[in-house]
Design brief:
Chains A, B: It holds the Pfam family CobA_CobO_BtuR. Two copies of one chain form a homodimer. The first copy, chain A, has a single domain (44-203), classed as Rossmann fold (3-Layer(aba) Sandwich). Helix content of chain A is 46%, strand content 16%. The first copy, chain A, has nine helices and six strands. The interface between A and B is large, with 94 and 95 residues. β6 (190-198) of chain A pairs antiparallel with β6 (190-198) of chain B.
Amino acid sequence: MNDSETETAGMSEAELARHSEKMAKKKQAREKIMATKTDEKGLVIVHTGKGKGKSTAGFGMIFRHIAHGKPCAVVQFIKGAMMTGERELIEKHFSDVCQFHTLGEGFTWETQDRARDVAMAQKAWEKAKELIRDERNSMVLLDEINIALRYDYIDVAEVIEFLQTEKPHMTHVVLTGRNAKEELIEIADLATEMELLKHPFRSGIKAQIGVEF
Amino acid sequence: MNDSETETAGMSEAELARHSEKMAKKKQAREKIMATKTDEKGLVIVHTGKGKGKSTAGFGMIFRHIAHGKPCAVVQFIKGAMMTGERELIEKHFSDVCQFHTLGEGFTWETQDRARDVAMAQKAWEKAKELIRDERNSMVLLDEINIALRYDYIDVAEVIEFLQTEKPHMTHVVLTGRNAKEELIEIADLATEMELLKHPFRSGIKAQIGVEF
């Protein structure tokens, strides 16, 4: 593409002017909206749905906190065997700013022992409460807690009450996992459903390093 | 919660046995499915939708590659001002394993200069092609390229043809941004729509460090 093509990109002068005007209006509208957004507070953030990216985006926010040097923590509720890459990276380089606790072990169908899974989930929840109560933490990621809530390994009413009454005002808490309880989405400040449009498992591709784990 | 509560968790022996049986069946079913997944190949991954987490999950995968010591690269197509935390973190600690190129500058409505935006997007696409062609890279993240495609700053047919004919077999390419073109989703191996369930801007909360940027 040469310079003159770049400059017109198939548009007439009039079209370019319209494009520019449209974008100026968008900018004005956006600035007007953003000017009304003045509060800061710690958010309750939920990532759910059958699609990819729930935990990955949660860890993305944790890395963003690490990047800003803001203390944070991760509690893994279910899949101890997954996200090991993140864990190693954080423990190796950033253990001064991010605590990492893996208390769940494997998916629940791996263990087939409900009593053990309940005990693990409760232990993870106790650790989560301790980390959230510690005002030094700017963000606490409760990875896959939704699975523990779904199987009633932890009581959702208790989690909601804790978030509403004991979470420090400026602390962000991120709760991930499919099948988030409706009550939790209700009280969330930010909730995203990761919806599966296409998945490579359907065409015989296995889980791969760097993508799935 | 004491130990005996933990062990029964409100379930009778019979209920516990049924739970265990159900989980055993789930495990069998999953193992059967996973055994058919034997191929490895580089995936074309699309994150789209109006919800949060598209770029964040993309960067999460990049951090996962970094964790495994696998060479990777990021090209930012639009929002040069965003994701600066990730950029600083990567450039400071992991520049040996991850290249970072920011070629877009701000959202398009910030500039109101289509010719400049087209030139920027084309430059970013040239860099993207160079990085993808380099077989050392295990993953290349094309952050916010969907916005450049939507405004036809880059030709989607050209991108698809490149991915189908020139992308090395084992290289993963991640394309993020809302309004992904249908044609792109068609050829993707893995596509996720991040759907907005709740957003704090609605209740007057501004973008916050570590969450939005």
